[in-house]
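Narrative progress, year one. The postdoctoral researcher (J.K.) led the effort to move from monomer predictions toward full complexes, under supervision of the PI. The following entry was the first complex the group processed end to end, covering 618 residues in total.
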Amino acid sequence: MSVVFTVRDLDFCYPGASRDAVRGVSLEVPEGGFVALLGPNGSGKSTLLKLMLGELGRSAGEVAYLERPIESWPRREVARRVAFVPQAEPLAFPMTVRALVEMGRYPHVGVLGRPGPEDAAAVESAMVRAGVIEFAERSVTHLSGGERQRARIARALAQEPSTLVLDEPTAALDLHYEMETFELLRHLSHDAGFTVLVATHNLNLAARYASRLALLAEGEVQAAGDPEAVLQRETIERVYRWPVVVSSHPGPGPDASAPQVIPLSRPPGGKTNDGEVNRCGG
Amino acid sequence: MTRNPTGPIAVRLLLLSFVLALVAAVALVVGPVHVPLADVLGALRGRADPTAQTIVTSLRLPRVLLASLVGAGLAVSGSVFQALLRNPLAEPYVLGVASGAAVGAVAAIVLGITATSFVALPASAFSGAIVATALVLAMAGAHGRGLDTRVLLLSGVVIGAFFNAIILLIINFADVETFRAALLWTMGSFSGASPESVAAVSIYVVPALVGLTLLARPLNLLSVGEQSAFHLGVDVRRFKLLLYVATSLVVGVCVAGAGAIGFVGLVVPHGLRLVGGSDHRWLLPGSALCGAGFMVAADTVARTVVAPAELPVGVVTALVGVPVFLWLLLRHEELR
């Protein structure tokens, strides 16, 4: 199986920051794979995604998309292959869901082109897939958080990419929408051949839906591999500074026996380990 | 495909063109000497009596054309600044960019460059505009989250005051004739319009406006944030640089042609958004047509209400624009 993203020895430091946001990260995203990036707040998940997609320029190391350095790709060519769903986005002016999803056709239509029937068809099928077709003509400002997130996923699908990258897609969603989102991602990955890369706080859903996990802390990869290898009690307790037990999904369903992390109450007198701090430019 | 509030874009633009033609016709008819519409039409074809011919083709037509170009340029610049800074209060005059351009224009005048220079005067005003734009960008920060209203207003006031001080400093060194001409730049007027000044403005403004209008689609993407625009295939850094340079050029050339005229870039896009929404495929050509009509109307008022004297056209646009600005500010603050 070929590799979609290759990350090697990646370092990045925000200007003026006292420590690297990403340090010595190596990672591979295989074609058709479902990879989840895990880690506490500020562990570097979002920064790593930005570096992999070329939004930020790295300090050192390599990032390649389809074996070509990400920064040497023309933006529109990347956008025809890789779609990104942000955590949240500002909306300067009101617009309909359909107008938002139509934006996904920009990499295909370009600055001067006119959208044709194939663009309209792609928009329609993306809205059906993401389940937003019923409120296509409603204003995005009048949608709930879950509906808005699905509209952004629809826009990503309208790009007709082969890779989907999502930054905490379910952070603001209730259980129903969170499950629906992960089910959709699994369907896209298993049945439609999409490569999926998702940053999330939800260890348990990542363990069920992703085939490969990478756990970050302080900008460094603490563990990577299949869910059983990454979600070890000692690793989770060290990274999250909280006592846990690791159980397994009771079933029924396809996720039976996937590792599931259950946080415990803090033992009396338990103290936290704040971890070491690495310095920039080291 | 997108549902439009009041009919398809082309129909609405046609309607605006019709209004512009109407306003221009009125502007050619009224003045100290009333020229009947029949004579105006005759003069446009070169077949009127000599007096009407002179009034229409040498005095009023250049004025209408210059006001149209400057109004279109300032209104489109306002729309683009609002999309770039994601703030509906952004406008060349409010941001201080027009004052920067006026410094460049006044400096050129004092140095002895004539008002109908095709290169030196526009270049000088453009330099002033781009310096002011760079200051605005420094204020906005590199975060791409949009410009906070308080920062926008404060920096605009301060940058504007600074540039006005420089203008007063420069014209202190000028003779009386130049002093009068330079003072005009700080208030805005079309009284110096001539076929040459129309040509000097149009060679820059027309191509720049056509180019900006063609960029409507990527501009729409900026309204969902720079991060999303980047991932939808826009090279955001290069695109923003191009937009800032193009709008600074338009503002610089407009100010060189008629002085610093405020609030057109605020009133016009805001009205158009209320009528037809924020799609830039409508907003940009609409701003050009409506800005032109608004400016011709304002200039007609400026030269007729106190006839035979003349008001600076900036006074008229400010009298209309400031109430709209305050209303927008109050509404905008409620949204926060």
